[in-house]
Specification:
Blueprint lengths: L1 H23 L18 H9 L19 H11 L3 H5 L17 H9 L5 H5 L9 H11 L3 H6 L18 H9 L18 H15 L7 E9 L3 E6 L2 E6 L6 E3 L2 E2 L10 E6 L5 E8 L4 E4 L3 E2 L5 H10 L3 E8 L2 E8 L8 E11 L4 E10 L15 E6 L7 E6 L6 E5 L6
Parallel strand pairs: 4-7, 10-16, 13-15
Antiparallel strand pairs: 1-2, 1-6, 2-3, 4-5, 6-7, 8-12, 9-14, 10-11, 11-14, 12-13
Protein name: S-layer domain-containing protein
InterPro entries: Cell_Envelope_Struct_Comp (IPR051465), PrcB_C_dom (IPR025748), SLH_dom (IPR001119)
Keywords: Repeat, Signal
Amino acid sequence: MLKKSRLFISVVVILSLLFSSAAYAKPQPQYSFDDIQNLTWAVKAIEKMYAKGFIKGVGNKKFDPSKPVTHLEALVMILRAMGYEEDANKITELPKEYKGPKLSWGKSFITLAYQKGILTYDELKKFNPNEKAKRYEIAKYLVRALGFEKQAQENIDKVLNYKDWDKIPKNVRGYMYVAVQKGLIKGDGKKLKPNDPVKRVEMAVLLERLDERIQNDLNGRDVVATVYAIDNNTITVKVNGVLKTFNILKNAPVYNGNEYVGIDYLKTGYQIRLILDSKNNIIFVEVLNNKSEEVIPIELKKVTNPPQKVLSAVEAIKNKPAVKLVEENGVYYVIATRGMMRTGGYIINIQKAQITKTSKDTILEVEVKYVDPSPDAIVTPAITYPYDIKSFTYDGKITQISAKTDKNINISVDIDISLDIK
Protein backbone atom coordinates (compact mmCIF):
# COMPACT_ATOMS: atom_id res chain seq x y z
CA MET A 1 0.00 0.00 0.00
CA LEU A 2 2.87 2.32 0.89
CA LYS A 3 4.55 1.63 -2.45
CA LYS A 4 1.33 2.50 -4.32
CA SER A 5 1.02 5.77 -2.40
CA ARG A 6 4.59 6.70 -3.20
CA LEU A 7 4.02 5.84 -6.88
CA PHE A 8 0.84 7.95 -6.97
CA ILE A 9 2.63 10.94 -5.39
CA SER A 10 5.54 10.62 -7.83
CA VAL A 11 3.17 10.60 -10.80
CA VAL A 12 1.32 13.67 -9.47
CA VAL A 13 4.60 15.56 -8.95
CA ILE A 14 5.84 14.71 -12.44
CA LEU A 15 2.56 15.76 -14.05
CA SER A 16 2.54 18.98 -12.03
CA LEU A 17 6.04 19.82 -13.21
CA LEU A 18 5.13 19.06 -16.80
CA PHE A 19 2.02 21.23 -16.78
CA SER A 20 3.77 23.97 -14.85
CA SER A 21 6.60 24.05 -17.41
CA ALA A 22 4.11 24.13 -20.25
CA ALA A 23 2.24 27.02 -18.67
CA TYR A 24 5.32 29.18 -18.39
CA ALA A 25 7.16 28.04 -21.52
CA LYS A 26 7.87 30.71 -24.12
CA PRO A 27 5.86 30.33 -27.33
CA GLN A 28 7.56 28.70 -30.27
CA PRO A 29 8.11 31.31 -32.99
CA GLN A 30 6.36 30.79 -36.31
CA TYR A 31 8.71 32.41 -38.81
CA SER A 32 7.73 33.65 -42.25
CA PHE A 33 10.92 32.05 -43.61
CA ASP A 34 12.65 28.79 -42.78
CA ASP A 35 16.20 30.17 -42.80
CA ILE A 36 16.07 33.12 -40.37
CA GLN A 37 15.54 31.50 -36.96
CA ASN A 38 19.19 31.87 -35.92
CA LEU A 39 19.37 35.57 -36.82
CA THR A 40 18.19 36.75 -33.41
CA TRP A 41 19.65 40.25 -33.92
CA ALA A 42 17.75 40.79 -37.17
CA VAL A 43 14.75 38.47 -37.29
CA LYS A 44 12.31 41.14 -36.07
CA ALA A 45 13.53 43.56 -38.76
CA ILE A 46 13.11 40.87 -41.42
CA GLU A 47 9.58 39.99 -40.27
CA LYS A 48 8.57 43.64 -39.94
CA MET A 49 9.94 44.74 -43.32
CA TYR A 50 8.38 41.68 -44.94
CA ALA A 51 5.01 42.46 -43.33
CA LYS A 52 5.24 46.03 -44.64
CA GLY A 53 6.05 44.74 -48.13
CA PHE A 54 9.44 46.43 -48.42
CA ILE A 55 11.40 43.20 -48.75
CA LYS A 56 10.44 39.85 -50.27
CA GLY A 57 11.54 36.25 -49.98
CA VAL A 58 13.30 34.26 -52.70
CA GLY A 59 10.73 31.45 -52.89
CA ASN A 60 10.03 28.18 -51.05
CA LYS A 61 9.79 30.02 -47.69
CA LYS A 62 13.44 31.04 -48.02
CA PHE A 63 14.84 34.49 -47.32
CA ASP A 64 18.49 33.75 -48.26
CA PRO A 65 19.82 36.19 -45.62
CA SER A 66 23.50 35.93 -46.59
CA LYS A 67 22.99 36.75 -50.27
CA PRO A 68 24.30 40.22 -51.20
CA VAL A 69 21.78 42.71 -52.57
CA THR A 70 22.33 44.26 -55.98
CA HIS A 71 22.12 47.97 -56.69
CA LEU A 72 18.72 47.51 -58.31
CA GLU A 73 17.36 45.43 -55.42
CA ALA A 74 18.58 48.03 -52.93
CA LEU A 75 16.92 50.89 -54.82
CA VAL A 76 13.65 48.96 -55.09
CA MET A 77 13.59 48.29 -51.34
CA ILE A 78 14.46 51.88 -50.42
CA LEU A 79 11.85 53.34 -52.76
CA ARG A 80 9.22 50.96 -51.40
CA ALA A 81 10.08 52.00 -47.85
CA MET A 82 9.79 55.66 -48.86
CA GLY A 83 6.26 55.00 -50.11
CA TYR A 84 7.03 55.47 -53.81
CA GLU A 85 6.00 52.06 -55.19
CA GLU A 86 2.75 53.38 -56.67
CA ASP A 87 4.72 56.14 -58.40
CA ALA A 88 7.08 53.54 -59.81
CA ASN A 89 4.19 51.45 -61.12
CA LYS A 90 3.15 54.36 -63.34
CA ILE A 91 6.54 54.46 -65.10
CA THR A 92 7.20 52.24 -68.13
CA GLU A 93 10.48 53.50 -69.61
CA LEU A 94 14.10 53.76 -68.56
CA PRO A 95 15.82 57.15 -68.73
CA LYS A 96 17.61 57.74 -72.02
CA GLU A 97 20.82 58.28 -70.05
CA TYR A 98 20.78 54.67 -68.86
CA LYS A 99 23.39 52.59 -70.74
CA GLY A 100 23.37 49.43 -68.61
CA PRO A 101 22.25 45.89 -69.43
CA LYS A 102 18.71 45.07 -70.49
CA LEU A 103 16.33 44.38 -67.64
CA SER A 104 13.37 42.05 -67.21
CA TRP A 105 12.14 43.97 -64.15
CA GLY A 106 12.85 47.09 -62.12
CA LYS A 107 13.02 49.62 -64.97
CA SER A 108 10.56 51.95 -63.30
CA PHE A 109 12.52 52.01 -60.05
CA ILE A 110 15.71 53.09 -61.82
CA THR A 111 13.81 55.89 -63.51
CA LEU A 112 12.19 56.93 -60.25
CA ALA A 113 15.51 56.84 -58.37
CA TYR A 114 16.92 59.16 -61.02
CA GLN A 115 13.92 61.48 -60.79
CA LYS A 116 14.17 61.60 -56.98
CA GLY A 117 17.88 62.40 -57.04
CA ILE A 118 18.97 59.11 -55.48
CA LEU A 119 20.95 58.44 -58.66
CA THR A 120 22.83 61.30 -60.30
CA TYR A 121 23.28 61.85 -64.03
CA ASP A 122 26.87 60.58 -64.00
CA GLU A 123 25.97 57.58 -61.84
CA LEU A 124 23.07 56.61 -64.10
CA LYS A 125 25.30 56.47 -67.18
CA LYS A 126 27.55 53.92 -65.40
CA PHE A 127 24.85 52.20 -63.37
CA ASN A 128 25.09 48.42 -63.23
CA PRO A 129 21.85 47.14 -61.67
CA ASN A 130 23.20 43.61 -61.18
CA GLU A 131 26.36 44.60 -59.34
CA LYS A 132 26.59 43.90 -55.61
CA ALA A 133 25.96 47.07 -53.57
CA LYS A 134 28.61 48.06 -51.03
CA ARG A 135 27.89 49.59 -47.64
CA TYR A 136 29.11 53.06 -48.61
CA GLU A 137 26.92 52.95 -51.73
CA ILE A 138 23.84 52.02 -49.70
CA ALA A 139 24.69 54.85 -47.29
CA LYS A 140 24.67 57.26 -50.23
CA TYR A 141 21.25 56.04 -51.41
CA LEU A 142 19.76 56.29 -47.91
CA VAL A 143 21.08 59.79 -47.29
CA ARG A 144 19.77 61.07 -50.62
CA ALA A 145 16.41 59.36 -50.14
CA LEU A 146 15.99 61.24 -46.86
CA GLY A 147 16.91 64.58 -48.43
CA PHE A 148 20.28 65.01 -46.68
CA GLU A 149 22.33 65.65 -49.83
CA LYS A 150 23.29 69.16 -48.70
CA GLN A 151 24.45 67.90 -45.31
CA ALA A 152 26.53 65.22 -47.01
CA GLN A 153 28.29 67.82 -49.18
CA GLU A 154 28.89 70.09 -46.20
CA ASN A 155 30.53 67.26 -44.24
CA ILE A 156 32.61 65.74 -47.01
CA ASP A 157 35.87 66.46 -45.16
CA LYS A 158 34.71 65.24 -41.75
CA VAL A 159 36.44 62.25 -40.17
CA LEU A 160 34.93 59.73 -37.77
CA ASN A 161 36.93 57.55 -35.41
CA TYR A 162 36.85 54.30 -37.35
CA LYS A 163 39.97 52.38 -38.37
CA ASP A 164 38.78 51.98 -41.95
CA TRP A 165 37.50 55.54 -42.52
CA ASP A 166 40.23 56.07 -45.12
CA LYS A 167 38.84 53.12 -47.10
CA ILE A 168 35.76 55.15 -48.02
CA PRO A 169 36.10 56.97 -51.37
CA LYS A 170 36.74 60.66 -50.65
CA ASN A 171 33.71 61.92 -52.54
CA VAL A 172 31.41 59.64 -50.51
CA ARG A 173 32.71 60.33 -47.00
CA GLY A 174 30.14 63.04 -46.39
CA TYR A 175 27.34 60.55 -47.08
CA MET A 176 28.84 57.99 -44.73
CA TYR A 177 29.34 60.69 -42.10
CA VAL A 178 25.67 61.72 -42.27
CA ALA A 179 24.49 58.09 -42.37
CA VAL A 180 26.43 57.30 -39.20
CA GLN A 181 25.34 60.49 -37.43
CA LYS A 182 21.69 59.79 -38.27
CA GLY A 183 21.95 56.20 -37.01
CA LEU A 184 21.35 54.66 -40.43
CA ILE A 185 24.73 52.92 -40.64
CA LYS A 186 26.40 51.41 -37.58
CA GLY A 187 29.78 49.77 -37.35
CA ASP A 188 31.13 47.32 -34.83
CA GLY A 189 32.70 50.09 -32.74
CA LYS A 190 36.01 49.93 -34.58
CA LYS A 191 35.19 49.49 -38.27
CA LEU A 192 32.42 50.42 -40.70
CA LYS A 193 33.48 47.96 -43.42
CA PRO A 194 32.43 50.42 -46.14
CA ASN A 195 33.48 48.23 -49.06
CA ASP A 196 31.73 45.06 -47.92
CA PRO A 197 28.69 43.99 -49.96
CA VAL A 198 25.42 44.43 -48.07
CA LYS A 199 23.68 41.15 -47.32
CA ARG A 200 19.91 40.76 -47.47
CA VAL A 201 19.73 40.37 -43.69
CA GLU A 202 21.68 43.62 -43.25
CA MET A 203 19.45 45.36 -45.76
CA ALA A 204 16.39 44.43 -43.71
CA VAL A 205 17.92 46.13 -40.66
CA LEU A 206 18.86 49.22 -42.71
CA LEU A 207 15.31 49.43 -44.06
CA GLU A 208 13.89 49.25 -40.53
CA ARG A 209 16.09 52.19 -39.50
CA LEU A 210 14.95 54.10 -42.57
CA ASP A 211 11.32 53.28 -41.83
CA GLU A 212 11.67 54.51 -38.25
CA ARG A 213 12.74 57.90 -39.58
CA ILE A 214 10.04 58.35 -42.20
CA GLN A 215 7.25 56.40 -40.43
CA ASN A 216 5.56 55.10 -43.58
CA ASP A 217 2.10 54.15 -42.29
CA LEU A 218 1.17 52.23 -45.47
CA ASN A 219 -1.90 54.41 -45.98
CA GLY A 220 -3.24 53.54 -42.57
CA ARG A 221 -2.11 49.91 -42.41
CA ASP A 222 0.71 50.63 -39.94
CA VAL A 223 -1.19 51.50 -36.77
CA VAL A 224 0.24 52.67 -33.44
CA ALA A 225 -2.32 52.09 -30.71
CA THR A 226 -2.96 51.13 -27.10
CA VAL A 227 -4.30 47.66 -26.25
CA TYR A 228 -7.85 47.81 -24.92
CA ALA A 229 -8.90 44.15 -25.01
CA ILE A 230 -7.65 40.85 -26.42
CA ASP A 231 -9.78 37.90 -27.51
CA ASN A 232 -8.71 34.61 -29.06
CA ASN A 233 -8.65 35.95 -32.60
CA THR A 234 -9.05 39.72 -32.20
CA ILE A 235 -7.34 42.69 -30.63
CA THR A 236 -9.28 45.81 -29.71
CA VAL A 237 -7.13 48.92 -29.52
CA LYS A 238 -7.56 52.61 -28.85
CA VAL A 239 -6.40 54.82 -31.75
CA ASN A 240 -6.66 58.56 -31.11
CA GLY A 241 -9.37 57.91 -28.58
CA VAL A 242 -11.39 55.65 -30.90
CA LEU A 243 -11.79 51.92 -30.29
CA LYS A 244 -11.04 49.65 -33.24
CA THR A 245 -11.08 45.86 -33.43
CA PHE A 246 -8.90 43.85 -35.81
CA ASN A 247 -8.67 40.15 -36.55
CA ILE A 248 -5.22 38.69 -35.97
CA LEU A 249 -4.09 36.08 -38.47
CA LYS A 250 -2.88 32.75 -37.16
CA ASN A 251 0.87 32.73 -36.42
CA ALA A 252 1.20 36.51 -36.84
CA PRO A 253 4.54 37.30 -35.15
CA VAL A 254 4.55 39.39 -31.96
CA TYR A 255 7.85 40.98 -30.89
CA ASN A 256 9.06 42.92 -27.87
CA GLY A 257 12.35 44.35 -29.07
CA ASN A 258 14.13 41.50 -30.84
CA GLU A 259 12.39 38.87 -28.70
CA TYR A 260 9.52 36.81 -30.05
CA VAL A 261 6.89 36.91 -27.30
CA GLY A 262 3.62 35.71 -28.82
CA ILE A 263 0.08 37.07 -28.52
CA ASP A 264 -0.31 35.99 -24.88
CA TYR A 265 2.34 38.52 -23.87
CA LEU A 266 0.10 41.49 -24.66
CA LYS A 267 -1.80 43.20 -21.85
CA THR A 268 -4.30 46.01 -21.61
CA GLY A 269 -2.55 49.38 -21.73
CA TYR A 270 0.48 48.24 -23.75
CA GLN A 271 1.36 50.54 -26.63
CA ILE A 272 1.83 48.48 -29.79
CA ARG A 273 2.36 48.78 -33.53
CA LEU A 274 0.04 46.74 -35.73
CA ILE A 275 0.79 46.03 -39.37
CA LEU A 276 -2.32 45.10 -41.33
CA ASP A 277 -2.81 43.36 -44.64
CA SER A 278 -5.06 44.68 -47.41
CA LYS A 279 -8.11 43.25 -45.60
CA ASN A 280 -7.19 44.90 -42.29
CA ASN A 281 -6.10 41.66 -40.66
CA ILE A 282 -3.15 41.87 -38.26
CA ILE A 283 -0.04 40.24 -39.72
CA PHE A 284 2.63 41.67 -37.39
CA VAL A 285 2.70 43.13 -33.87
CA GLU A 286 5.49 45.09 -32.21
CA VAL A 287 5.38 46.09 -28.54
CA LEU A 288 6.46 49.73 -28.27
CA ASN A 289 5.84 50.24 -24.56
CA ASN A 290 4.88 47.60 -22.01
CA LYS A 291 4.43 49.94 -19.05
CA SER A 292 0.66 49.79 -19.34
CA GLU A 293 0.37 53.43 -20.32
CA GLU A 294 -2.87 54.95 -21.54
CA VAL A 295 -2.51 57.59 -24.24
CA ILE A 296 -5.26 60.21 -24.30
CA PRO A 297 -5.43 62.58 -27.29
CA ILE A 298 -6.53 66.14 -26.54
CA GLU A 299 -7.90 68.92 -28.70
CA LEU A 300 -5.84 72.10 -28.63
CA LYS A 301 -7.58 75.42 -29.18
CA LYS A 302 -5.98 78.70 -30.22
CA VAL A 303 -6.14 81.31 -27.45
CA THR A 304 -6.84 84.88 -28.58
CA ASN A 305 -7.79 86.45 -25.25
CA PRO A 306 -5.77 84.78 -22.49
CA PRO A 307 -6.44 85.50 -18.80
CA GLN A 308 -4.02 87.67 -16.84
CA LYS A 309 -2.42 84.67 -15.12
CA VAL A 310 -1.42 83.30 -18.51
CA LEU A 311 -0.11 86.65 -19.74
CA SER A 312 1.99 86.96 -16.59
CA ALA A 313 3.40 83.49 -17.25
CA VAL A 314 4.33 84.52 -20.82
CA GLU A 315 6.13 87.58 -19.47
CA ALA A 316 8.06 85.45 -16.98
CA ILE A 317 9.45 82.98 -19.56
CA LYS A 318 9.58 85.00 -22.79
CA ASN A 319 13.38 85.46 -22.67
CA LYS A 320 14.12 81.73 -23.16
CA PRO A 321 12.88 78.72 -25.10
CA ALA A 322 10.32 77.20 -22.76
CA VAL A 323 7.05 75.34 -22.48
CA LYS A 324 4.84 76.05 -19.48
CA LEU A 325 1.49 74.62 -18.42
CA VAL A 326 -0.87 76.94 -16.53
CA GLU A 327 -4.31 76.13 -15.13
CA GLU A 328 -6.97 78.78 -14.69
CA ASN A 329 -10.62 78.15 -13.79
CA GLY A 330 -10.50 74.52 -14.86
CA VAL A 331 -8.89 75.22 -18.25
CA TYR A 332 -5.33 74.21 -19.08
CA TYR A 333 -3.16 76.64 -21.06
CA VAL A 334 0.04 75.55 -22.84
CA ILE A 335 2.56 78.34 -23.46
CA ALA A 336 5.56 77.92 -25.76
CA THR A 337 8.24 80.60 -26.15
CA ARG A 338 11.36 80.91 -28.32
CA GLY A 339 13.30 83.56 -26.43
CA MET A 340 14.54 86.94 -27.59
CA MET A 341 14.89 87.28 -31.38
CA ARG A 342 16.60 90.25 -33.00
CA THR A 343 14.12 90.52 -35.87
CA GLY A 344 10.56 89.64 -36.68
CA GLY A 345 9.58 86.70 -38.88
CA TYR A 346 10.06 83.99 -36.26
CA ILE A 347 7.03 81.78 -35.73
CA ILE A 348 6.34 79.27 -32.98
CA ASN A 349 3.49 76.78 -33.10
CA ILE A 350 2.28 74.26 -30.55
CA GLN A 351 1.37 71.57 -33.06
CA LYS A 352 -0.14 68.82 -30.96
CA ALA A 353 -0.26 67.36 -27.49
CA GLN A 354 -1.38 64.21 -25.76
CA ILE A 355 -1.73 62.96 -22.21
CA THR A 356 -0.02 59.74 -21.17
CA LYS A 357 -1.24 58.09 -17.98
CA THR A 358 0.99 55.65 -16.14
CA SER A 359 0.51 54.00 -12.78
CA LYS A 360 2.29 56.96 -11.14
CA ASP A 361 1.94 60.05 -13.31
CA THR A 362 -0.25 61.86 -15.79
CA ILE A 363 2.10 63.42 -18.33
CA LEU A 364 1.32 66.10 -20.90
CA GLU A 365 3.50 65.57 -23.97
CA VAL A 366 3.77 68.62 -26.24
CA GLU A 367 5.21 68.97 -29.75
CA VAL A 368 6.44 72.44 -30.72
CA LYS A 369 7.50 73.64 -34.17
CA TYR A 370 9.83 76.60 -34.66
CA VAL A 371 9.87 78.39 -38.02
CA ASP A 372 12.70 80.79 -38.89
CA PRO A 373 12.42 83.50 -41.52
CA SER A 374 13.98 82.60 -44.86
CA PRO A 375 17.34 84.30 -45.64
CA ASP A 376 15.74 86.56 -48.26
CA ALA A 377 12.63 87.41 -46.23
CA ILE A 378 11.83 91.04 -45.44
CA VAL A 379 11.49 91.18 -41.64
CA THR A 380 10.94 93.87 -39.04
CA PRO A 381 14.34 94.96 -37.57
CA ALA A 382 13.20 94.89 -33.96
CA ILE A 383 13.55 92.76 -30.85
CA THR A 384 10.72 90.21 -30.73
CA TYR A 385 9.61 87.51 -28.30
CA PRO A 386 7.61 84.98 -30.32
CA TYR A 387 5.22 82.75 -28.40
CA ASP A 388 2.13 80.62 -28.83
CA ILE A 389 -0.70 79.77 -26.46
CA LYS A 390 -3.11 76.87 -26.81
CA SER A 391 -5.77 75.68 -24.39
CA PHE A 392 -7.52 72.40 -23.69
CA THR A 393 -9.84 70.86 -21.15
CA TYR A 394 -9.14 67.66 -19.24
CA ASP A 395 -11.04 66.24 -16.31
CA GLY A 396 -8.02 65.30 -14.23
CA LYS A 397 -4.75 66.49 -12.76
CA ILE A 398 -1.58 66.63 -14.85
CA THR A 399 1.54 65.95 -12.82
CA GLN A 400 4.30 66.30 -15.41
CA ILE A 401 4.98 67.98 -18.74
CA SER A 402 7.45 67.06 -21.48
CA ALA A 403 8.21 68.88 -24.74
CA LYS A 404 9.99 68.18 -27.97
CA THR A 405 10.73 70.32 -31.00
CA ASP A 406 11.91 69.95 -34.58
CA LYS A 407 15.08 71.93 -33.82
CA ASN A 408 18.09 71.16 -31.65
CA ILE A 409 17.08 73.59 -28.91
CA ASN A 410 17.11 72.96 -25.18
CA ILE A 411 13.63 73.72 -23.85
CA SER A 412 12.86 74.30 -20.20
CA VAL A 413 9.51 73.02 -18.95
CA ASP A 414 7.40 74.19 -16.03
CA ILE A 415 3.98 73.52 -14.62
CA ASP A 416 1.69 75.81 -12.60
CA ILE A 417 -1.62 74.21 -11.66
CA SER A 418 -3.94 74.22 -8.67
CA LEU A 419 -3.52 71.41 -6.19
CA ASP A 420 -7.24 70.82 -5.89
CA ILE A 421 -7.81 69.70 -9.50
CA LYS A 422 -9.21 66.18 -9.54
